[in-house]
Every structure is written in structure tokens, then in C-alpha cells.
Amino acid sequence: MMKKTTLQIIGLSAALLSTGALADGIRASLAMDKQSYASQQDVYVTLTLTNEEPKAVKLLKWYTAADGVEEALFKVSVDGQEQPYLGAHYKRPAPTLKDYIKLKSGQSLSYKIELSSLYDMSQTGNYEISYDVSNLKLMGPGTSKNNSLSPMSQSLSNEKVKTDKVNFYLEGRKIASPTHELTADGIVSTMASAAGGSVSFTGRCSNSEQSSILSGLSAARSMAANAKSYMQFSSPTTRYNTWFGSYSSSRWNTVANNFSNIDSALNNEPLTFDCKCSKSYFAYVYPTQPYKVYLCNAFWSAPTSGTDSKGGTIIHELSHFNIVAGTDDIVYGQSGAKSLAISNPAQAIQNADSHEYFAENTPNQN
């Protein structure tokens, strides 16, 4: 099972402590109570967020560990070498009011988080950890320059929070596969015969769910083939500029290579789809564990093709695999992706939703 993140209101008496400022008067601090860990010990860190404003503020809970760690919330390095995040990457809808938590003036929220199952801590050495997140909609409406969740009010600059680094020494260990409440496979119900690589289903996918997945996979293959062809034989047009921003040859080549890899994975690799997830999201994957995609509630009501579709979701999730494109979830939703393309093309080419919307191409653009 996933190691639970606990929510506490606590005082910190840790040996290691760092603090940092967050937009609109929220202060973040990071604390550890040990300076060294043996190889068999789990590494825990306590993240505390304190509202120093005279009024209540809202914070996007995806970046707080309120529901467990569902994003790469931390930067982890050993002897100066950054270590990869091994946890799940989710495809979500754009945030709504229910996705924010409210902190009253003076209130602190603390989360004790087990990190050694979420980051590669196999090496012996001196580790550094910092809490480091940013998002266009990190602060909720009424608490920052983003006074509304409306696309028309979308800010073009990320809101950020970052603490200083805390340090500790760790003895090397074997890499532990990341765990999650939803990762137990159960019995593989069916091995589908599909053009290209094999397709298997775990998590007791029903017949109708299997059929829906295969339809989505067919749409994904068509979208990916079209995107790959565009990148190989076209020059930058409105379609490219909308999702990836201004042209540079290096960024163009990165996107072209990403879609070539996505297309290849869809057609040549053994894909596994799991149906147990009951979260409200579309889907998630573990980037270091290709090619398994966990499908969640929003996937089943999505159209087969078009915006935020089944086919697009599959492309989104495959792009997360490190061996495919290694994308991240920098922003969610079409309006956020369009804003990112304008404000930061270098991040747009790393954003999974940007790849999905380019591939879905709705409304159709040449």
C-alpha cells in the first residue's frame, strides 16, 4: 500500500530546518529529525505551510500533499546529482474551486512525507532536498493576481514556492519500486490482439471497458501518426505555435523526437491498461515503469477523440514515460497550455497536456 501522508498541526523541533517564502504571504518550511540514515531506514521530511497574511488564502492542494504526494513536490540530489521522481504522474482537468485548500490567517498545515519510495535513493552519499513547486494557478481566486479561474484571467507567469535545502547522509540501498494503493495488479483478465504491440488488461477491466480502451487506443494511434507526420513534413504553423510557442530548431526537434517515440510506443510496445483507479482524474503512470497506464474515472466519460479524449489521454500518459518523452505536468487544461506556450516555450515542450492538445488538434488547425 502507499505510505500515507499525515496531516498535522505541529510545532517543529527538528535538527534540520529550512524555510522559504511563497506568493501572497504563505511561508513554507522543511524539517528533518535525522542527519543520517542507514540503508534500511525510510527517509521522512515534514513540510509545513503557514499563512502569514491577515486574511485567508487558498492553495492548490495538488502541491501540498493534502491527498498524499501526487506531484514531484521536491528536488532531490545526491552529491550534486539530481535524482528522478519515481511517483505517479496524473492527468487532471484544469483546477476548480474544490481543488484548493483554505488556510486561515496564522494557520499552519504540516505533512509528514516518506520520500525514499518516491525518489531514487539507491546511492550512498550526501543528499539535499528542497520543496520546489510552481503552477499558473497555485494560489486560488481572491488570494493573488489570479482572481478568477476563468481562462480570460489566466496569468502568464507561474506562482512559485521554494524552500532552502536540507541535508542528510544516506547509506546506499536497492532501488525500491514506487508503491501506491492502486498498483496491485490482481489477475490479468485478457490479452487483447491488436495491431502492433500486445495489449493487456489488469484490475478486472470489464468487457465494455476493454472495448472502450481499444477504441481509445485506436484513436491515439491515429492522432500520434498525424502529429508525427506534421513534425516530419511541415513547417511551424498556428497549430504548432498554439501549443509549443515560438519556433526554435532545438525545440522543434525535441517535439518531433517526442512524437516519434510516442508513435513507436503505441504501435510496437506491449501496453498494459489497469482499471482499478477510483480517483476523479483521467489516468496516471509511473514514469520509470513503461508501458502501464492506470485509468481513472474521468477517462470513462471522455470522448474517444477530440479535446481531453480517451485517445489524447493515452498519448498524454505515454509521454510521461522517461524512455518515451519524459514530460511533466506543468499546467493542465487548454487555456493553461496556451498561456504556457506564450510565456515559456521551453516549458511547453516539456508539458504533457501540450503534447496531448497538439495531437488531438481540436479545433482543427493546419
From TrEMBL:
<keyword id="KW-0482">Metalloprotease</keyword>
<keyword id="KW-0479">Metal-binding</keyword>
<feature type="signal peptide">
    <location>
        <begin position="1"/>
        <end position="23"/>
    </location>
</feature>
<dbReference type="InterPro" id="IPR024079">
    <property type="entry name" value="MetalloPept_cat_dom_sf"/>
</dbReference>
<keyword id="KW-0732">Signal</keyword>
<feature type="domain" description="Lysine-specific metallo-endopeptidase">
    <location>
        <begin position="229"/>
        <end position="360"/>
    </location>
</feature>
<dbReference type="GO" id="GO:0004222">
    <property type="term" value="F:metalloendopeptidase activity"/>
</dbReference>
<dbReference type="InterPro" id="IPR034115">
    <property type="entry name" value="M35_peptidyl-Lys"/>
</dbReference>
<keyword id="KW-0378">Hydrolase</keyword>
<comment type="similarity">
    <text>Belongs to the peptidase M35 family.</text>
</comment>
<dbReference type="InterPro" id="IPR050414">
    <property type="entry name" value="Fungal_M35_metalloproteases"/>
</dbReference>
<dbReference type="GO" id="GO:0006508">
    <property type="term" value="P:proteolysis"/>
</dbReference>
<dbReference type="Pfam" id="PF14521">
    <property type="entry name" value="Aspzincin_M35"/>
</dbReference>
<protein>
    <submittedName>
        <fullName>Extracellular peptidase. Metallo peptidase. MEROPS family M35</fullName>
    </submittedName>
</protein>
<keyword id="KW-0645">Protease</keyword>
<dbReference type="InterPro" id="IPR029463">
    <property type="entry name" value="Lys_MEP"/>
</dbReference>
<keyword id="KW-0862">Zinc</keyword>
<dbReference type="GO" id="GO:0046872">
    <property type="term" value="F:metal ion binding"/>
</dbReference>
